[in-house]
């Protein structure tokens, strides 16, 4: 004001402009800091300062977010209700719940690696520590159908021993070495040890681990693509405790949502598995009256174990 009285308006204008610029700059910095805190709250952004990260961690704790190895697991918004509630739901509501559950990411994986081809047959693997497979890692691959791209990539990228199983490949020897670190067995995954009428030899995961002397080893990747048999097999694996030796699991889930399948998904959740990636297999599209949109009855689901 004094400068303006001295009839130096250009200096007065310069001072006012500079002051306004400083105020705007300060507001931008404050806003940016708040934005980074929000990002850090959900994704543990490594760009955060220690003090900002501490504030973010405190907010996560106050909101009852659970921080696990490999990512942040939030309170799950789509919960599967009790058996009684499921049994009293209509088919349409069961399908909606199944679809919503599968399509909700439950855990964060910052580095997802595609193993196998981009089309049907490839799977998404979490390469974050501590889930990233490292030699001497172990991979079990159920359901081959003469497509070896997943198994070849698992051996090549991660340096794992890969054991492949498929009872339908009758043109192969019962056991043979497909390639370095890749071994094939003409065995299927089941809830019981049996031989089916078509002479398929079926074994539980627990029995297979015993037969291969792997009971003391961790299964780094368990791939299951067994055309609907998964729904009968998964409950047995949960009840036997075999899945406690599995770090991550890639499954193609077949069929539409019914109460029994939702119960199996709830078992996996209670056993510590969280979905970090999912993909729709468009080869299984369907629609029917009562559904709001077209869906698929084949879902590729990747999950890792957050509890031991």
From TrEMBL:
<keyword id="KW-1133">Transmembrane helix</keyword>
<feature type="domain" description="Methyltransferase">
    <location>
        <begin position="107"/>
        <end position="278"/>
    </location>
</feature>
<dbReference type="InterPro" id="IPR029063">
    <property type="entry name" value="SAM-dependent_MTases_sf"/>
</dbReference>
<keyword id="KW-0472">Membrane</keyword>
<protein>
    <recommendedName>
        <fullName>Methyltransferase domain-containing protein</fullName>
    </recommendedName>
</protein>
<keyword id="KW-0812">Transmembrane</keyword>
<dbReference type="Pfam" id="PF13383">
    <property type="entry name" value="Methyltransf_22"/>
</dbReference>
<dbReference type="InterPro" id="IPR025714">
    <property type="entry name" value="Methyltranfer_dom"/>
</dbReference>
<feature type="transmembrane region" description="Helical">
    <location>
        <begin position="12"/>
        <end position="30"/>
    </location>
</feature>
<dbReference type="InterPro" id="IPR026913">
    <property type="entry name" value="METTL24"/>
</dbReference>
